[in-house]
Amino acid sequence: MADVPAVTVVADFAAASDFEKKHTPFITLEAQLDRLLVNVEVGHEVPHPNGTDHYITFIELYANGAPIARLDLSPAVTHPKFCVPVSLPPDTILRAVEHCNLHGLWAYEVTI
Ligand SMILES: [Fe+2]
User: Fold this and answer.
1) pTM of the prediction?
2) If one looks up domain 19-90 in CATH, what number appears?
């Protein structure tokens, strides 16, 4: 069985260091008439460098642990982010996970 890679979960974005902020896949929510718009952004307050030697390789979004969206990225993407409209019940836990090729996996969660 392969080792499960460690994930750094940032619980308090406001109190996070600049290094943590540049890796945290920050989630914002926009309520719309019949759906919720989920925005996930890496580099929300502190931009993450994106070049051939150091970049974000993917962003994933989970709802109560089940995968619901994934975006694969190349070093050509200068500001990794995506938005996806969802229809989910209240109290669903959304977890965004991103992977930096040098600094590993980072996660952030919100409850809708
Ligand atoms: Fe990094």
Assistant:
1) 0.90
2) 2.60.40.730
